[in-house]
Amino acid sequence: MRGSRKRLCSALIVAYGLFSLYAAYTVFLRPRRLAAPRPPHRDRRGSRDHVALGNEWNPWEEDEKNELVASQQKYEANLKMIKNARSHLDQTSLRVQIWGKAAIGLYLWQHIIGGHLEPADVTAQWREGSQKAGKMYFSFITGPSVAPGYFSVEAENVVLVLNGREKAKITYATQWLHYAQTLMQTRKIQHVVVVLLGNEQCNNEWIQPYLKRNGGFVNLLFVTYDYALVNEEDIFQWPLGVATYRNFPVVEPSWSMLRDPRSYLCNFLGTVYKNSSRENLMEILKQDGLDKLCWIAAREQWQPQETNESFKNYQDALLQSDLTLCPVGINTECYRIYEACSYGSLPVIEDVMTSGDCGNSSVYHSAPLQLLKTMGAPFIFIKNWKELPAVLEKEKKMSLQEKIQRRKKLIEWYRNFKAWMRQKFINTLENSFLPSDKG
């Protein structure tokens, strides 16, 4: 019995060994037959042969093609929609070209509209920029090379920035007005707006015949100073702004500007004219040593151009003073007011009318500085410099925290003022140029 089992086990072992050898031969040593080539798959939709990837039939091929076609159709539909939207935008947008032929144009472009210029070099013969705002697409050109007939007129709506302060400037300004009038007559442009640096005594009669209301072609006039003919219909008051002709920059508030203590209570760097209130101011400052508390640098003759050193001193004085004294000159409004706001130094303004034709208008009754007062300027207004000692005494008692809050309020007001002027400018142009939806 035991012998029979032994023989059976031996037989099984031998059989397993033979099967293993056969399997090894089949897998590793036996030569393989080459498979017969499969004929290419013929596309039922046409006679052209189509070989599937890897010579294998793809059961999802038709679905993939359908998805590709659908994706292409969707892309084309979206592209068409974008083109239609752009076309609609072009129809509703108003292209306006600004010709900056007075330094006040840089205040409009860089400080109010917030545009940039290329090249950045302020001495360049030609500078330009563009900016989208509301329904407006603005382009701006400026520089000595911008001359009548020597540049491309790229819009039917033109804003012409001119200087009308004195006779020589007016002569140059009228040349530009005649050029614009010729373009109007030949239908190359449709609308003209003038932003005018007006005469400091508001002697602006020369511009009146060019206004549309008087038979001219100028649709709107924005003019500096308290011009008595401002009506908020086609004549608007415009801020004097900063002295861009001296390259006063767009100032961005910093942490230190807002929070650091300042070394001086006040500052005045400017010209002291004979027999002016500025002489009174200098005398009052010398009383009780008040001039020792303020940064004072008086000169007897006006200097149109600053040196690098004098300009840096002026900026430092604004930055290091809590108050900036703003005595009247030929006009009550001066660049110093806006430049002080840029640095958070509160303007102290001599609130008196100067000689000339400036004054209240049909819509404003608080001259001088009607525009600033209407906008709630948080300045200190005084009628006589004899009030200054009391102002400075109060200033001494203010805490740093109180001054910080005042600086924040001033800088925020000035930012809002520029934004308000920007929106007013844009809205006025839109209302004048775009067709009305009424009726």
- Total domains: 2
CATH class of the largest domain: Alpha Beta
Distance between the termini: 122 Å
How does CATH name the architecture of the largest domain? 3-Layer(aba) Sandwich
* CATH superfamily grouping of the largest domain: Glycogen Phosphorylase B
**SS class:** alpha/beta
Shape: extended
In the predicted model, the low-confidence regions spanning at least 5 consecutive residues are 32-55
Mean pLDDT: 87
Q: Helix count, per DSSP?
A: 11
- How large a portion of the residues is in β-strands, by DSSP E? 15-25%
The count of β-strands is: 12
Strand order of the largest sheet: 2-3-1-4-5-6-7
Please give the share of residues in helix. Answer: 25-40%
Tell me the layout of helices and strands.
Blueprint: H1 2-29, H2 61-92, E1 94-100, H3 104-113, E2 127-133, E3 136-142, E4 157-163, H4 167-185, E5 191-197, E6 220-224, E7 235-238, H5 255-259, E8 264-271, H6 277-286, E9 294-299, H7 308-319, E10 321-326, H8 335-342, E11 346-350, H9 370-374, E12 380-382, H10 388-397, H11 400-433
Parallel strand pairs: 1-3, 1-4, 4-5, 5-6, 6-7, 8-9, 8-10, 10-11, 11-12
Antiparallel strand pairs: 2-3
Helix pairs in contact: 3-11
GO molecular function, one term: ribitol beta-1,4-xylosyltransferase activity
InterPro entries: RXYLT1-like, RXYLT1_C, RXYLT1_N
Domain RXYLT1 N-terminal: 96-239
Describe this structure in words.
- One of its GO terms (cellular component) is Golgi apparatus.
- Pfam families: RXYLT1_C (PF24785), RXYLT1_N (PF24786).
- InterPro entries: RXYLT1-like, RXYLT1_C, RXYLT1_N.
- This protein is α/β, with parallel strands linked by helices.
- The protein has 2 domains: 91-242 and 425-433, Rossmann fold (3-Layer(aba) Sandwich); 246-420, 3-Layer(aba) Sandwich (Rossmann fold), CATH 3.40.50.
- It is built from 11 helices and 12 strands.
- The chain has helices at residues 2-29, 61-92, 104-113, 167-185, 255-259, 277-286, 308-319, 335-342, 370-374, 388-397, 400-433, and strands at residues 94-100, 127-133, 136-142, 157-163, 191-197, 220-224, 235-238, 264-271, 294-299, 321-326, 346-350, 380-382.
- Strands 2-3-1-4-5-6-7 form a 7-stranded mixed beta sheet, with helices on both faces.
- Mean pLDDT is 87; it is low at 32-55.
